[in-house]
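Batch manifest line 247
LIGAND: NAP
JOB: complex structure
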Amino acid sequence: MDNNMLTAVVTGASRGIGRCTAATLGRAGYRVYLTYANKADEAETAVGEILAAGGKAAAFRLDVADPEAVTHFFQTEIKDKVDLHILVNNAGIIKDSLLARMKDEDFDKVLAVDLQGAFTCLREAAKIMMRRRGGRIVNISSVSGQTGNAGQANYCAAKAGLIGLTKAAAKELGVRGITVNAVAPGFIETDMTLTLPDAVKEQMLKSIPVQRFGNPEDVAEAVLFLVSDKAGYITGQVLAVNGGMYC
Ligand code: NAP
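JOB STATUS: finished
ARTIFACT:
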């Protein structure tokens, strides 16, 4: 392996936004490490597509809600092995229900994956990036964290928390040449939104000024910009990719 090649870690890259972001970064010339929770086949297929396009990539099973596993991953697969330039904290889950019915375990699980998982990855990546005095971290938040959404108290809390985490980390890490930004997608067509009833989707479409749902490419291009040299003076920001749904 070429250890001088800039490397990007994208969490939750077996499907949806993460997979598309990994492919986009692969095309842009970064070596991409894709992580996944369960779907090894999907992750290996995603890696195969990047390799077939002439890029460099590998897949790793990593439950971001397991802090020891995250630390182990960064210590054994990243530190001293590759030149870590980019972390995209994308792994996320939903466990929706109205407040009164929301179980403690469903609140905790969403916080553990969507917020604490991002924190642990960010901390471990930052330790490595601080030594090389540079890097780019992008946290995938959500419009739900900006506006709130009925039935998603756990998810909204996690995604709003990610925005606070982004801003705090940006203030700490700027001096080390590391930028930290968030991307807040609106409604993006992936497995996560596939099961929403048609009536809900129709209602949602009415609230989107550009009159279409987003696709993973819309988000991936925003991430690509934020990790590029052109975005070196942007940090602590939230870039909404939502078709004008909330602005
Ligand atoms: P998705 O299609 O459901 O994919 C989720 C990804 O996260 C998968 O790769 C999954 O891995 C991984 N994952 C789940 N639990 C994990 C864990 N504990 N540890 C590590 N990886 C885990 O979701 P998506 O729609 O692409 O969403 C990606 C991100 O964008 C999420 O953070 C989501 O909250 C955010 N977002 C999505 C939308 C939207 O409309 N779709 C809008 C705003 C924000 P496996 O394949 O192995 O299960």
